[in-house]
Design a protein that fits this description.
Chain lengths: 118, 495
């Protein structure tokens, strides 16, 4: 069975991080920036999972024929679950701030939202 | 008493926040009193832990669920953590008193919940002994801080909160990438074990991972160029929350940064990361001082001054010597006291006179003499005038910087202090020598706090030795990693 080399996963994860970072830094619309943030978080989660991945092994659930030596590292998977929950909370929080912002300023363009300066 | 009771430091604010909705029916005042009681109990526990750790000289290590580290998660309350947990609790308690005057916007119950969670997050960041747990507590702190920044529901508040969120999101992603790299290299998340294994990992991986973690924490720690959110958030957040940001949210970030930095001190390329941090910290000091000079809003001005002093602390931590770390801890304590005093005073003026613009401060010496006196002492302390507490810590940081050979950094910091003196004396001049106005009666509990803090500032300024010896112990807790590894009862697994 041919399995892609492990670095391919790293490449995909880092690519997602960079795409997300690009969106945050370049886009003018706040919603697009938040989408970028989510993409970035996905990339980071993917990186975490791929660090614990061992090619050819199964999910870390003990069942018949699968001992600790046949499973991948469970810790990164647990970490990713936590990170996903935190990411969802941040996104929800950010979207509610966007709602307030849109009510007060009537725009989502980051260049027009500049009342605080100095 | 059993040291495991120290886990109440985490449990109490969490349970406290959980029960807020039950108190909601009793009215606004009940909720504020409830927060006051919870923070008072927290201060009591923290004082007990502090006393216990400093009298026995042994750290309290809480092992969660009986699973020994590195399998389980442990809390590590050594000299540093017990000192700072006490400061976090005390600052929260004082701000809980201030809440009675400063917070009127509904919903109070949500505010109370977030207030307690902010205290929890900072306590956890300081106490934890696990690098992923650190991330979780950092996110608790960050998310409550975002929400509290947006609490006033004005456009400015939402704008400040969003800026903070976007920078914080990038920062936490970087932090997580760093954690992933270090986990991939060492196979552990426990700080003591990471320190144990740090010498064996590939220096490049360690350097990149460490730099990413520091980059992520620099958002919380308000280091240039990741501090663009800070002045906005300080200006837009409710006044007690601003004081909490400056007094301990930043400190928790700085501490985490210093802790992770020194854990990896056996890595070969460690000094490259230190050099990066020295440059960032010095730039933070200089840029923040010059930005403060231009401000008309006093709250924003003090926010910039706070950032510059945080840069000073980061500089001290980045020196990589025992003297530097000790001086940094000393400055952290002093800065917490002074900034609580300043933000309390300025926030109170803003509540009473309807704004924190410099115009509101004209003639304050006649209108609110006690508050004005408190702000004046705080301002003089922040500049670093002798006989006030920050003088000693600034002096020690500058001496430690010169000792390591970063003369340019010491010079820039001193030059920035001159700028700082200019805008603080402008404020003092406006308070005492301009404008007229009638006397406003000042709130007695708040003035008691102001007087207490002024006495602390001057007492430490005149007699710094006690606090200096405490800071030295706390500093050695960060610097002496070998002792840290020895203290944590690691099970012989993994490795």
């Amino acid at each position: 069975m041919s399995v892609p080399h492990i670095s391919a996963f790293y490449f995909g994860a880092i690519a997602l991080v960079l795409i997300g970072l690009y969106a945050i830094l370049v886009k003018k619309n706040i919603l697009k920036m938040l989408i970028g943030l989510s993409i970035m978080e996905t990339g980071v989660n993917l990186l975490l999972v791929s660090i614990g991945y061992i090619s050819g092994r199964s999910a870390p659930i003990l069942s018949e024929g699968i001992g600790p030596n046949q499973a991948v590292d469970p810790i990164p998977q647990a970490l990713v679950l936590t990170a996903i929950v935190i990411g969802v909370a941040t996104t929800a929080m950010a979207l509610s701030a966007v709602i307030v912002l849109y009510k007060r300023y009537g725009t989502l363009n980051i260049e027009e939202i500049r009342r605080l300066r100095g | 008493m059993n040291g495991q009771y120290a886990s109440l430091l985490i449990a109490l604010p969490l349970l406290g926040a959980f029960f807020v909705p039950l108190i909601k029916g009793l009215g606004k005042k009940a909720i504020k009193t409830y927060v006051l009681i919870i923070t008072a109990i927290q201060t009591g526990i923290a004082a007990w832990v502090f006393q216990e750790v400093y009298s026995t000289g042994k750290p309290i290590i809480v092992i969660a669920g009986g699973w020994k580290p590195p399998v389980g998660i442990n809390l590590y309350l050594g000299y540093f953590a017990s000192l700072f947990v006490l400061i976090v609790a005390l600052a929260s308690f004082l701000m809980a008193v201030f809440n009675f005057k400063a917070i009127d916007v509904e919903p109070i119950d949500k505010y109370a919940m977030l207030f307690l969670l902010l205290m929890l997050g900072a306590t956890g960041m300081i106490a934890t002994g696990d690098i992923f747990n650190l991330f979780v507590f950092m996110e608790i702190t960050a998310i409550t801080a975002y929400a509290l920044t947006a609490y006033n529901k004005t456009g400015e508040a939402a704008e400040a909160s969003l800026k903070y969120m976007i920078l914080g999101g990038i920062g936490s992603s970087f932090f997580l990438i760093g954690v992933a790299l270090i986990y991939g290299a060492t196979g552990t998340l426990n700080m003591a074990q990471i320190a144990q294994l740090a010498g064996h990992i590939n220096p490049t991986v360690a350097q990149v991972g460490l730099a990413l973690i520091i980059f992520g924490l620099a958002v919380e720690a308000e280091l240039f160029p990741l501090n663009a959110w800070a002045p906005d958030a300080y200006q837009a957040a409710p006044h007690p929350v601003t004081a909490m940001f400056s007094a301990f949210v930043v400190k928790a970030g700085l501490y985490a940064m210093a802790r992770v930095l020194y854990l990896m001190s056996s890595v070969g390329t460690w000094h490259n990361v230190l050099r990066l941090l020295v440059v960032m910290a010095t730039l933070t000091v200089v840029v923040a001082e010059f930005s403060a000079l231009r401000q008309r809003n006093v709250k924003r001005m003090i926010a910039y001054s706070s950032i510059s002093q945080v840069g000073l602390i980061a500089l001290a931590f980045a020196l990589g010597t025992q003297a530097g770390v000790d001086a940094g801890v000393f400055q952290m304590v002093n800065h917490a006291i002074v900034k609580v005093l300043l933000f309390l005073g300025v926030g109170y003026v803003a509540v009473q006179l309807g704004g924190a613009e410099i115009e509101n401060f004209r003639g304050l010496g006649r209108r609110m003499p006690v508050t004005a006196f408190g702000i004046t002492v705080g301002a003089m302390a922040a500049v670093g005038i002798p006989l006030f507490n920050i003088f000693w810590s600034k002096l020690r940081i500058i001496l430690a910087t010169i000792e390591v050979g970063y003369t340019w950094a010491a010079f820039l910091v001193l030059a920035a202090s001159v700028v700082e003196a200019v805008y603080y004396f402008r404020l003092i001049h406006a308070i005492w020598f301009e404008g007229e106005g009638e006397r406003i009666s000042e709130s007695v509990p708040l003035m008691a706090i102001v007087v207490l803090l002024v006495v602390l500032v001057i007492a430490i300024g005149v007699y710094p030795n006690y606090l200096w010896s405490v800071s030295q112990k706390a500093g050695s807790d960060i610097f002496n990693v070998a002792q840290y590894i020895k203290n944590v009862p690691l099970m012989g697994v993994g490795a």
